[in-house]
Amino acid sequence: MQFIDKVKLKLKAGNGGNGIVAFKREKYNPLGGPSGGDGGNGGSIIFKVDTNKSTLLDLRYSKMIRAQDGENGKGNSMYGASRDDVIVKVPLGTIVKDIALDEVIADLNTLDSQVVICQGGKGGKGNYHFKSSRNNAPDFCTLGTPGEERDVIIELKLLADVGLVGLPSVGKSTLLSVVSNARPEIADYPFTTLKPQLGMVKVGDSSFVMADLPGLIEGASEGRGLGHEFLKHIERCRLIIHVLDMGHEDPINDFEVINEELKRYPGNLGDRPQIVLANKMDLDNAEENLKAFKEKYPDIEVFEAITLINEGLMPVLYKANEMLKELPQFPLYDTHKTDTKVVYKYEEPKQFDIYNEGNGVWRIEGDKIERLFLNTNFQDDDSVLRFSRALSKMKVDEALRERGCKNGDQVFIHDYSFDFMDEDE
Ligand SMILES: Nc1nc2c(ncn2[C@@H]2O[C@H](COP(=O)(O)OP(=O)(O)OP(=O)(O)O)[C@@H](O)[C@H]2O)c(=O)[nH]1
Ligand SMILES: [Mg+2]
Predict the structure, then answer these.
(1) How many DSSP H helices and E strands does the chain contain?
(2) With a threshold of 0.85, does the pTM exceed it?
(3) Domain range spanning residue 116?
(4) How many structural domains does the chain have?
(5) What is the Å distance from ligand 2's center to 189 Cα?
(6) Atom of ligand 1 minimally distant from the CA of 194
(7) Residues 185 and 149 in one domain
(8) Which residue lies with its CA nearest to atom 21 of ligand 1?
(9) Is residue 80 located within the same domain as residue 55?
(10) Which of 34, 165, 344, 355 has an alpha carbon within 20 to 30 A of 182's alpha carbon?
């Protein structure tokens, strides 16, 4: 299970300042000499890994990052000021893709990774520089070179930090929905959630990724209720929030059943750090059940909540955040390199989903299709042709038609849209 966080940015390094032409005018040296100084260098834009970051959230709001231009040279052979580089701090596991070049230009996958993404321009030379025995009054200078400019897509691949674990219908999806921007399906029947859902949770200045996992049942470790399938996801989470429905008949038993399944799973997920969350404290029996739980497990810290109305959850999030700081990171992903392109091992991506947004507007989402989209340079006809061929190979048109998409309807993939043209009509 991977969470792909994606941000599109414009980057512009500073231009180099221009050299200038100037001559000294001194009292005892009326002819003077060339004295135009050099321009300063423009600032570069550098991406640097910062282990305190685990998300791209703070970049999401900056559409453009630019470094300052170098100052022009001055008289008296004085340099113009060079400008500081802009250091953009990103989480480990960030890759930077240049949209126009259509390739990955940086892969910040080690703790000390630091890459110049846009080189600042060099300052030009003032005429002072060009003084020679043959020309002691040069009247020319050079201009600064422009700073590099790029449109990039920044992507982060990471695993969930926290997994929500518990029996079906205890309120896991409800929890994710109130603490993050994820919108999982919520209903009072078991196995509402069949696939993990991820959301970004912000706590103070930090944030972490929370995974809403399908409910577990007794026998899961032997495969009951898609058990292995579901338990597998928990393996990738550093911390478990064990959610209990305190309105149930016997939450102590529920708690033990789940822990037993975790323990039985190969690799012993029973060792994974847990936070115990007593949910649905609004229900009858809840207080009584909680009391019994605390008597049975006096050493376990229990957090009480009514997730439905977002009550009691802040302390849980803070606790999770604190614990995560101490817990080791798992390796982010396996990579192997071929030439300059970086290839990531994905789980087999889902082809695509089609959403009907009404009024003849449709949206297509899906890992594979979105990657295709990102790899397409829409300024380039060949590239666009390749894109549309790939779409037809994935039978996107057919799927759209089946869902009721009509000629002239608008279909969106990311912020790109095209008019639906059904050739069969
Ligand atoms: N009374 C009460 N009901 C809650 C609370 N939290 C969640 N629920 C309800 O419990 C039911 C199940 O919630 P979900 O969030 O779908 O449960 P889940 O754990 O994700 O369930 P599965 O996906 O099936 O494993 C829903 O009807 C929720 O509205 C709570 O604090 N109090
Ligand atoms: Mg659910």
Answers:
(1) 8, 20
(2) no
(3) 3-157
(4) 3
(5) 9
(6) 23
(7) no
(8) 169
(9) yes
(10) 344
